[in-house]
Amino acid sequence: MKREDLKNYRYNKNWIKRQLENYEEQKAIVYNISQNLDGMPKAKNKPNYGLENLMDQYNKILEILEKDQEKQNEILIQIRELEEPYRTIITDKYILGMSLEEISIDINYSYDRTCKMHGIALNEFDKLDKVVSKCQDMSV
Q1: Torsion over CA of 49, 51, 57 and 60, rounded to 10 degrees?
Q2: I need a labelling partner for 34 at 20 to 30 A (CA). Which of 3, 61, 83, 139 fits?
Q3: Which pLDDT value is given to residue 18?
Q4: In whole angstroms, what is the distance from residue 19 CA to residue 17 CA?
Q5: Dihedrals φ, ψ of 53, to 5°?
Q6: How far is CA 68 from CA 34, 42, 49, 64, 139, in A?
Q7: What is the DSSP annotation of 6-39?
Q8: Is residue 69's pLDDT more than 60?
Q9: pLDDT in tens, 10-58
Q10: What is the C-alpha to C-alpha distance for residues 11 and 8, in angstroms, rounded to an integer?
Q11: Helical segments of 1-140, H only
């Protein structure tokens, strides 16, 4: 994965979470409205037409979410390949959203040293991406 993917990790994760929440909310609304409109009791597990249409629309979104989740997993795997303390710096900064000041306190280094190590960590992350890309090119 590229550095840009790493920087967008938390935003993508929050987007996935919001989309899933929206999906559940819309599903509940359509189910409740369709039950109230015809006035006939329905079995809890029997889908209705409105719900089926909604499910079709959201199946496309779920495919996108699956691809995004795969990307998130690839980022985590790539981070796991980093050596310490670079792994900790990258994880704390981009996965947990900590500031470099907080990270420097956590790893017990000066702020300046942490900033330099952060730059090195990003370069190491980029090197791992190039190695993975070469391996994928050779396997194709």
Answers
A1: -120
A2: 61
A3: 87
A4: 5
A5: -65, -45
A6: 32, 36, 29, 6, 23
A7: HHTHHHHHHHHHHHHHHHHHHHHHHHHHHHHHH-
A8: yes
A9: 888 888 788 888 878 877 776 676 555 555 555 554 555 666 666 677 7
A10: 5
A11: 3-7, 9-38, 49-80, 86-90, 100-107, 111-139
- What mean pLDDT, rounded, does the chain reach? 78
Question: Which tens digit of pLDDT belongs to each residue from 88-128?
Answer: 999 999 888 899 999 999 999 999 999 999 999 999 988 88
Polymer length in residues for the chain: 140
d(CA 15, CA 12): 5
Buried b (16+ CB within 10 A) or exposed e, 33-47: ebeeeeeeeeeeeee
Which residue's entry shows tokens 């997993």? Answer: 73
**Residue 90 is which amino acid?**
I
